[in-house]
Amino acid sequence: MKYPPSLVALIRELSRLPGIGPKSAQRLAFYLFEQPREDIERLAASLLEAKRELHNCPICFNITDTDVCDVCADPSRAQNLICVVEEPGDVIAIEKSGAYTGLYHVLHGVLSPMNGVTPDKLHLKPLLPRLRDDMEIIMATGTTVEGEATAMYIQRLIEPLGVVVSRIAYGLPAGGALEYADEVTLGRALSGRQRITK
Amino acid sequence: MKYPPSLVALIRELSRLPGIGPKSAQRLAFYLFEQPREDIERLAASLLEAKRELHNCPICFNITDTDVCDVCADPSRAQNLICVVEEPGDVIAIEKSGAYTGLYHVLHGVLSPMNGVTPDKLHLKPLLPRLRDDMEIIMATGTTVEGEATAMYIQRLIEPLGVVVSRIAYGLPAGGALEYADEVTLGRALSGRQRITK
Q1: Does A32 sit within 8 Å of B7, measured CB to CB?
Q2: Measured between beta carbons, which residues in chain B are less than 8 angstroms from residue A66?
Q3: Do B31 and A37 touch (CB under 8 A)?
Q4: 3-class DSSP state for residue A182?
Q5: Under DSSP, is residue A82 helix (H, G, I), strand (E, B) or coil?
């Protein structure tokens, strides 16, 4: 007894997705098979529509369905701040925090020479013409080894151009008890302490 | 700044899938956005094709793309053996073992009254007209509480009809050291021991 070819094809396509192995793909395929036809058609349509409508903003490389993304098109955003992030999802995360009103630049990755991700593989070059003297560039790449290396690389690249470069703060996450913080985080939270009396 | 509607729609559709929460759906959507158009079109097409081509076998309720599934249509399979399983994936798993040459019956679930899965929610009723006197019905539902309850329920239902009912063997999994086996498994492996000398 063999799988029907259309089932084999679906499992193969599903198992290409990140974080979905052959077993999960099979489970997912059986699940999809049980769903009403309308649900499958809606899923397929939304895949095609998203691919058709969405593209990178030509200025900041965020995902958008308009010529230029909402942030770049909004003159009320602080034009002298650019926050450099790894992925489009990071923009959403920062926007949700409500703590930022400047512009973004999305690299679409981090430097990882071992995996062949060299500076030319990132959307880094288009950041340079955006820089002006009065600007602050906030490096908001992750605090992983690659994220740190990427932040440092970009800092060295753009510092000579006369911009201020900053790095998002290290410290304890909100709602975290001290005893659960790892020692690196705790060390950074201590050395980055801020005075609260005058 | 807001997500483009087509991205919101895709994330919503993806997060309906089992085991995919809002965060994974977002990651998956960004991943899909980065893929070539042909890959997305192939994924969407395979979803639609699988849904169009596949249906349950009217005899055993396995997934098939032909009128009757390969197993039911094969006269060389032992016609006096029916193996009752929970899901179509279980049929594949048993077929891969190469240890079985009879027929199947796929319940599409297990009894779970707490979750509203009563006997009428399973493809159980169509099993009854398939039973004949000379048959052995192998209960191969899982060894979970629900799987055991389902096996016992079906056994009590069909035993009066004069068929032999059996249960797949309990024991140690292949390649497993004794010290890693839980006590229930070990107890069952001992009480189910088989003589190997004459």
Answers
A1: no
A2: 4
A3: no
A4: coil
A5: strand
The count of CB pairs under 8 A between chains A and B is 158
Look up the ipTM and state it: 0.73
Residue-wise pLDDT tens digits, A73-83: 999 999 999 99
Cβ distance of B89 and A54 shorter than 8 Å = no
pLDDT at A132: 93
Q: Across the interface, do B50 and A9 touch by the CB < 8 Å criterion?
A: yes
Q: What is the mean pLDDT of each run of 10 residues along chain A (198 residues)?
A: 85 92 90 92 94 95 94 95 92 86 94 93 96 92 91 93 88 76 79 73
Interface test with A, best of B2, B13, B103 (most A CBs within 10 A): B13
What pTM, to 2 d.p., does this model score? 0.73
Cross-chain residue pair A4–B92, CB shorter than 8 Å: no
Give the pLDDT confidence of A152-178 residue by residue, as tens digits: 999 999 999 989 999 888 887 877 777
pLDDT for B173 equals 81
**B101-140 residues labelled b (16+ CB within 10 A) or e (exposed):** ebbbbbbbbbbeeeeebeeeebebeebeeeeeeebebbbb
Which chain A residues have a beta carbon less than 8 Å from that of B42? Answer: 13
DSSP string, B18-66: TT--HHHHHHHHHHHHHS-HHHHHHHHHHHHHHHHH-EE-TTT--EESS
Residue-range domains of chain B with CATH: 63-167 (3.40.1360.10)
